[in-house]
Design brief:
Elements: H1 12-41, H2 47-82, H3 88-91, H4 93-102, H5 117-130, E1 135-139, H6 151-159, E2 164-169, H7 172-180, E3 188-191, H8 197-207, E4 211-216, H9 222-232, E5 236-244, H10 269-282, H11 286-291, E6 300-306, E7 309-314
Parallel strand pairs: 1-2, 1-4, 2-3, 4-5
Antiparallel strand pairs: 5-7, 6-7
Helix pairs in contact: 1-2, 4-5, 8-9
Length: 316
């Protein structure tokens, strides 16, 4: 169970919102009461004036009742909106991510073998707090994992219930079986090799692109990761996030395999990310990047790396 510290149930922000709403509405009520007082003081006027004032008085009283009702509705609406996403996502995302994952029967290796709760807690959950209707693509259903496919899917459903979730997987039979078992209910699926540019084009066409977040937890070869990044990074919205997991295998022979469209022999994704870091650090000009033929690295706002993984944010 997620700790009380990790999840605050009635944050100060809600109280502040409620007080603002109350202040605005009480001001409106106070103004109406002042008009009502003026009406009563003018009872000594002639009959036609008194009739007009009494009519206005009744109208003001009706307005006050309406404002009182609106006040209750406004407070309820403000609280509902504030509670749509746990405000702990902004301040304690790492703990929330880890504890939620560990509460499941099938625990994703994002929090067991790896420590990816760091980058997801620091970047994904705060992003979701600000954009609960976000569109997210994860590459890799986990069909080859010992605990079976869909562990991260369960986590996304719980942590990101309002998001438009997409899942991409190489193993079509695994996707079919997972659907039949109800594991992918409410999700959209894409099938194919992430290292094939034509497949990626099909994914973009089917999904419509325009992703807020992409998570690459797929095949992990350098060619697969970099081919996917070059194709999919342009589909990320401004301000969006692109996560890449499991780069610790980049120098291993099995992960340097080539494909018909990619020479994996000398390709190393961590080194490619270091090049992006250098351009951020030394502020290479757009003109220089254009001369070097770099189309997709000039719009990186930041590069956050931790053990075995990184996340890139696109400039707004």
């Amino acid at each position: 169970m997620v700790s009380f510290i990790a999840r605050s149930t009635f944050p100060k922000a809600i109280v502040i919102v409620a007080l603002i709403v109350i202040s605005v509405n009480m001001y409106q009520i106070g103004s109406s009461l002042e008009l009502l007082t003026i009406t009563k003081k003018n009872k000594n006027k002639d009959s036609s004036t008194i009739d007009a004032l009494e009519k206005e008085s009744k109208s003001i009283q009706a307005t006050i009742k309406s404002l009182q009702f609106d006040l209750k509705e406004s407070i309820a609406d403000a609280i509902k909106k504030a509670l749509l996403v746990d405000p702990g996502y902004l301040t304690n995302g790492t703990a929330i991510f880890r504890e939620t994952a560990e509460s499941h029967n099938s625990v994703t290796d994002k929090v067991t073998y790896h420590e990816y709760y760091i980058m997801y807690g620091k970047h994904l959950l705060p992003y979701y707090y600000m954009h609960p209707k976000m569109k997210m693509l994860e590459i890799g259903l986990g069909c080859d994992m010992g605990y079976g496919p869909g562990a991260s899917v369960k986590l996304w459903k719980e942590l990101l219930p309002e998001a438009d979730l997409w899942e991409a997987e190489y193993n079509g039979e695994c996707v079919k079986k997972s659907k039949e078992q109800g594991q992918l209910e409410g999700l959209n699926t894409l099938v194919g090799d992430q290292g094939n540019p034509e497949v990626l084009d099909e994914w973009i066409e089917k999904s419509g692109g325009d992703f807020d977040v992409i998570i690459d937890d797929g095949g992990h070869t350098n060619c697969q990761i970099w081919t996917s990044f070059e194709k999919l990074w342009p589909t990320i919205k401004r301000g969006g996030l692109y996560f890449i997991e499991d780069m610790h295998v980049a120098n291993l022979k099995d992960y340097k395999r080539s494909s018909p469209t990619c020479d994996g022999k000398d390709l190393n994704v961590p080194n490619k990310l270091k090049e992006i870091f250098d351009r951020l650090m030394y502020n290479d000009s757009k003109a220089k990047r254009a001369r070097l033929g770099e189309k997709h690295t000039g719009d990186v706002e930041f590069l956050f790396c931790q053990s075995e993984a990184c996340v890139l944010k696109k400039k707004i």
